[in-house]
Amino acid sequence: MKIGFILSAGGSSCFEALELCRISTDKVHIVTDRQCSGLEIARIKGISNELIDFTSKAEFSKLAAQSFKKNNCSVVILLFSRIVSSELHEELLTFNIH
Hints:
Elements (H helix, E strand, L loop, with lengths): L1 E6 L4 H9 L7 E5 L4 H9 L2 E4 L5 H14 L2 E7 L6 H4 L3 E4 L2
Parallel strand pairs: 1-2, 1-4, 2-3, 4-5
């Protein structure tokens, strides 16, 4: 199983959980909507990642779902301050913890 995360800032809770649960970096894919320290940390740790450029909530959600599917994620955890649309949560098992 591969886990997807949507981050919008530093992602400290994401990276701490991954470490505590001893989840291998090759089992994680991170998506962001902006340049942020979470994206930089993912790159440093060798975690697959994607910065999505978008114009609407629906477009972001659709592109995020495509990114997670392309990277074989079976679940997505939102640590994200914006609302996503059905284009994401109807496609993948999604948990909003933010």
